[in-house]
Amino acid sequence: MSRPRIVVIGSSNTDLVVRARRIPAPGETVLGGSYMTAAGGKGANQAVAAARLGAEVAFVGRVGRDTFGDAALAALREEGINTELVARDESAPSGVALIVVDEQGENAIAVAPGANDHLGEADVDRARVRIAAADAVLLQLETPIATVAHAAQVAHELGVRVMLNPAPAEPLGGDLLAHVTVLTPNEGEARLLSGMRVDDADSAERAARALCGRGVANVVVTMGAEGAVFMSESGVGRVAGASVRAVDTTAAGDAFTGALSYALAAGRPLSDAVRFASTAGALAVTRAGAQPSLPTRDEVEAFSPPGEPER
Fold first, then answer.
1. What's the confidence (pLDDT) of residue 36?
2. Can you name the residues that pair with 229 across neighbouring β-strands?
3. At what angle do helices 67-78 and 42-52 cross, to 10 degrees?
4. Arithmetic mean of pLDDT, 75-94
5. What average pLDDT does this structure show over 33-46?
6. Over 90: is that where the pLDDT of 304 sits?
7. Fewer CB atoms inside 10 Å of the end CB: C or N, the chain?
8. Mind spelling out the 3-state secondary structure of the chain?
């Protein structure tokens, strides 16, 4: 059986991570414990997540001509990801994320986008042949929104599934949403996009219904340990979360979205794909770091899966 082909268009960052007893309040200094540097960025994370699960992945992005850029490209290539469409930016450094992780595994993140801010429509157009041959195109919001919208339009016109992880959260126009096949917001992102309260499964379902009403074919609202709610033309469903000990939640959403794109591109129905993705996300929070935490397909399939959909 051929491997699912996924094109990821998005960000690449280097994560500088400090573990601390708690996340500092504004104006406060907290002495931390361990420090680590790891490859990150929502786009690169999702590319690695899909590749480790068995997809054939091509990454479209920008990094600086610096040591962080060298390391980012090397990490992607080590995962078997095609980097021919990653540009080296001569005028901006590679993106960097400063991350503090507390004892419960929660985090606070500040990002300096660097070269990611220069990803443009021309970068997408250079990938047109690769997009046309793909089973899915995966997008996020750590690059300019005009570039994201252009990529969604190009993939839509070519008849390719468009998956959008709307993170970091920002308002989105109807023209972009109309080109999205699968939208994967978390509770906060669903709240912003729908304008509705989202704090439990029932309210997540209402928000998903509203977003489908704005033209999105399928919506999956992730709720961390509480699981996920999904809605499509065939109806609504819920998947329970897995009970795990959280070490670091950085990239849990990326693990979920990368796994969902892989499962859908491999031909799984949405309900099965959401269960598979929920397991991948749960495994990711049990390990430190962004890309280091992302599981393989064998690990996901060996893990006791979350419960069946409640309905």
1. 86
2. 221, 238
3. 20
4. 97
5. 91
6. no
7. N
8. CCCCEEEEECCCEEEEEEEECCCCCCCCCCCEEEEEEEEECHHHHHHHHHHHCCCEEEEEEEEECCHHHHHHHHHHHHCCCEEEEEEEECCCCCEEEEEEECCCCCEEEEEECHHHHHCCHHHHHHCHHHHHCCCEEEECCCCCHHHHHHHHHHHHHCCCEEEECCCCCCCCCHHHHCCCCEECCEHHHHHHHHCCCCCCHHHHHHHHHHHHHCCCCEEEEECHHHCEEEEECCEEEEECCCCCCCCCCCCHHHHHHHHHHHHHHCCCCHHHHHHHHHHHHHHHCCCCCCHHHCCCHHHHHHCCCCCCCCC
Instruction: Report how far residue 157's alpha carbon sits from residue 46's, in angstroms, rounded to the nearest whole number.
Output: 23
Which candidate, 120, 3, 95, places its Cα nearest to that of 44? 95
Confidence bin at 248 (pLDDT 50/70/90) = confident
The rounded distance, in Å, linking the Cα atoms of 311 and 308 is: 8
66 is catalytic: no
pLDDT digits (tens, 9 = 90+) for 152-176: 999 999 999 999 999 999 999 989 9
Question: Which is the catalytic residue, given 15, 89, 123, 254?
Answer: 254
Are 172 and 43 spatial neighbours (Cβ–Cβ below 8 Å)? no
